[in-house]
Amino acid sequence: MKKTATENSRYDLIDRRTLIKGSAAAVGLLLLPQVSHALPEDVEAEIAELFDTREIQQGKVTVTVPPISENGYSVPFAVDVESPMTEEDHVVRIVVFAEENPQPNVARFELGPRAGKASIKTRIRMGGTQRIRAIAEMNDGSLWTSYAFSIVTLAACVFDPGT
Amino acid sequence: MSTIRIAAPTIANKGEVIELKAMIQHEMETGYRRDRFGKEITRDILKYFECFYNGESVFKAEFFAAIAANPFLSFFTTATESGTLEFRWIDQNGVASSQSVELEVS
Q: Is the complex ipTM higher than 0.90?
């Protein structure tokens, strides 16, 4: 069937509108604020504030996160520290950092000999693919650290609070 | 009041290391999200968690915005005596929610 001139122009108009809407959306996407994340210096400053300049050794700590996190809003996280958890030798504190999150602090745990076992599980938010770091402080003052890496498919906290 | 779910053994042998699991219903609003008008949604999070074994603190946690909604925690304690385990959360405004369970140690 042959279309009339008016019908044709109406179709053109709709096309143009769609085009305009489409390009507006594209521009909007470009203008979206960038995902903000903490700087390594921020994490270093936090660590310096918590533990001064004490030496942090690699080992004893095991951080477990899934290698691929499909949902950054809820990622299963576990931290285990090798320690007999006796009165003489136990973990007193565990701090967790996520360097790519807008705010690098994740959680801090305080435990003692009554814990029996230094093993904690929770669920965390991840603002992007990154490594999760845990530092454990023993009762003798020694510090131990470890990392775990997770690829995040859907990132949590997409908007920058500053914009 | 928020719904609280506690998973803890009701009986244990003296000296046994037991796992305690606690979960509370809470948005844990990060303060980084915006509503449909583009306005920032203010932060509203639970800040502290503490577990008391017969009134004595055995485990403490401090939360930040990076803890997922409906915070879940699993940790361990040594069963020393029969008594009460109290799980307490305190939000950023200082409002506390708590629940207790009984533990029988033989």
A: yes
